Amino acid sequence: MGVFSEINIFPSPNVIQEAGSDLFGVIKYTVDEDTIFNEINISLNGSGSLIVIESVRSGDRQTENVFRYAENYIKMNNLIVSHDTITPIGVYEIPFHFKLPSNIPSSLKYNTVNGNYRIDCTIAYNVTVVFKRSCSSNFNNTVIKAVHIESGITPRLRMTPITYGHQKKILQLFSKKNGVVNIKADIQTCIVEPNGKVKLSYIINNDTNVTVKSVQIKLVEQYTFSDKVTSKLVDYNDIIDTKSKTGRIKSGNTQCMDIEIDLPSGLTTIEFSKLVMRNYFIYVTVVLPFPHSNIIMKIPIQIGYETVNDNMYDGPPAYYDAIKTDAVKS
């Protein structure tokens, strides 16, 4: 005797499901002889796991400490059969429907090495159907279908144009006066839809006696993992095909530039998890000659559709209130 079953998700199992949307599908199963089921259960499950492996060296000996963390996001059950029911030979279909919560994180599979830590983080969702028979404790037919979910965001940044600023003092050779590099960048919005476009313009004033070698713009992805060992592990990735580079800025000159960055597909901010966050920043890097250190201004953005209403703060302070000043000795 056997039960042959499959799970079909509409409109296609390869379609990304949005958090907060409706998930529809059908269970198809075939019974090759009259069978008594005492339970047929369809469930939607979602959970996250974080494994941190710490390598510790003491002399010639190296050991590993393994730390595991987990959290659950969804557990919805749809009990189709809850008592002994005879199912004749035949082919059957059971439609199902689940309403996805809005406040769940996106699906994720991420592995990285950070110093002496190896990190494996997974956020996974699935639809599961279980067939049970009361007359056979060994009979338990289970089918699992993975569901890829993309979550929305709670806006924490400004959706209207805003100006970011950064200022750095440079101690100059053969001069009693500190030189100053001043960066001012205007961004149209810090909330960007997936596959959208980031639009910004900047003005860099080089009031020093050195020549700025170049200005580099790129999108950077930041993962923050929360664990009980280090409190927070942070990992950064440059996003391919988002880098741009401009020419030199001579002493006393100013450079103005408009920049557009097309977001590659698959980029979304990850929220609603205590294990991991994924955030994005625009890096504006002013490249200085040796021995000066480069100047980096980070502009935060959120990538995703707004699905959760929340109180938005007013964003960063005005430009002239937000200027940061550093002194670097040559």
Layout of strands and helices, then pairs:
Layout: E1 3-10, E2 17-18, E3 22-31, E4 35-37, E5 39-58, E6 61-81, E7 85-87, E8 90-99, E9 108-114, E10 117-133, E11 136-147, E12 149-150, E13 162-170, E14 179-187, E15 191-192, E16 197-207, E17 214-227, E18 231-238, E19 244-246, E20 254-262, E21 276-287, E22 295-303, H1 319-322, E23 325-328
Parallel strand pairs: 2-12, 13-23, 15-22
Antiparallel strand pairs: 1-3, 3-8, 4-7, 5-6, 5-10, 9-10, 10-11, 13-14, 14-16, 16-20, 17-18, 17-19, 17-21, 21-22
Describe the fold and architecture.
The protein is mainly beta. It folds into two domains: about 5-150, Immunoglobulin-like (Sandwich); about 160-330, Immunoglobulin-like, CATH 2.60.40. The chain is built from one helix and 23 strands. It has one helix at about 320; strands at about 5-10, 15-20, 20-30, 35, 40-60, 60-80, 85, 90-100, 110-115, 115-135, 135-145, 150, 160-170, 180-185, 190, 195-205, 215-225, 230-240, 245, 255-260, 275-285, 295-305, 325-330. The strands form six sheets. Strands 15, 17, 18, 19, 21 and 22 form a six-stranded mixed sheet that branches. Strands 5, 6, 9, 10 and 11 form a five-stranded antiparallel sheet that branches. Strand 13 and strand 14 (about 180-185) form a beta hairpin. The termini are far apart.
Summary?
This protein has one helix spanning 319-322, and strands at 3-10, 17-18, 22-31, 35-37, 39-58, 61-81, 85-87, 90-99, 108-114, 117-133, 136-147, 149-150, 162-170, 179-187, 191-192, 197-207, 214-227, 231-238, 244-246, 254-262, 276-287, 295-303, 325-328. Residues 309-330 have low confidence and may be disordered.
